[in-house]
Amino acid sequence: MKKLLLAGLILMVLVTTACTDPPPGKQVTPANTKPINVWHDDERGVTCWIYNNISGFSCLPDKAFE
Predict the structure, then answer these.
(1) Mind telling me which PROSITE patterns this protein's record contains (predicted)?
(2) pLDDT computed for residue 28 by the predictor
């Protein structure tokens, strides 16, 4: 029973520490990475912008550009 509790405690600690973000000063972006990547999906007819610095993205349908 003690081994099971210890294994559960270790697993809980690993899961909680794995989900934390690194401190803002410690984040390093490689020099060859662009801050914004453009991605186009012909099948769905959308263009997406991927923002690497803030880990977000936006998409617009191709009809919006006509």
Answers:
(1) PROKAR_LIPOPROTEIN
(2) 57
Q: Is 61 in contact with 51 (CB distance < 8 Å)?
A: no
Of 62, 57, 10, 20, the C-alpha closest to 36 is 57
Note the pLDDT tens digit of each residue in 3-23: 888 888 887 777 776 666 655
Residue-range definition of the domain harbouring residue 53: 2-65
Tell me how many domains the chain contains.
1
**Residue 47 CB coordination number (10 Å):** 16
Q: Which bin fits 30, alpha (ψ -120 to 50), beta or left (φ > 0)?
A: beta
Type of residue numbered 59: C
